[in-house]
Amino acid sequence: MPTVSWLLAAVVCSASVLQARAGPAGPGPLPQSETAVVPCQLNTTDLNQCMARSIEHFLQAAKHGLSSVGIDALDPLAVKELELVKGSGKVAVTFEFHDVRFKGFSNSEVNSARLNVYDKKLEVSLRAPVYEIDGQYTCSGGVYELPISSSGRFAVTLTDVTSAWMLYFLTKTTNNETQVAVNRFIVDVSPSNVVYRFDKKFDGENSLGIGEAMDEFMNENALEIYNDIKPQLMKILSELFLERANQVFMRFPGAVPFLK
Q1: CA-wise closest residue to 137 among 177, 187, 84
Q2: pTM of the prediction?
Q3: Which interval of the chain is the signal sequence (predicted)?
Q4: Which of 13, 113, 160, 194 could link 222 by a cystine bridge, Cβ 3.0 to 4.6 Å?
């Protein structure tokens, strides 16, 4: 059996990400862009309820993207590459993740939305049955005298997921026209359970059962591992959502009502 030190290094390396570069999402059917956004009036008595309904509708309508107005797919969110280098010296492992997909956002139910017009802030609470992350990975390195080399597919399933979004806006008025942009998008995703699956295609000392030990260890400590990597994962999701949000507001400037 591999040592505890190796297991801990492999667990962190398998599930953590440090660098991300967004890539194109796959093709899909395109809904009519003119019906994707349901505008809300600033002086309505149910502004927050309207915002919640509008966000939930948009997640469904723009699931596969709106190519006619330059909005990329929301579900799945695609990331071309993720990379992690863990440790140094005798304990060092490099994981590279390719063609990673974040899936399940379009199935979210928006529980609430609260728009603060004067502070230009929008808080959104969501719930979804399942989020999934999958893609390809390669691994190379070593732990003490044990060489590590593997590749294959991986999948992470998050169930009963509660999410919170916090959007901060900037506005600029020119010639009586207000332009809206998001300058910060904070994402928090909290699942009730997490399941990790990695292909068992290990080279070298494969007889030690490294793949099986890693999966077993990760799933026995699923939430603890998730909470350890959560800050890095949320940073990546925040960057992806920020990009999509500004695509939306560039094409639909009236999606959020602000005082001029």
Answers
A1: 84
A2: 0.76
A3: 1-22
A4: 194
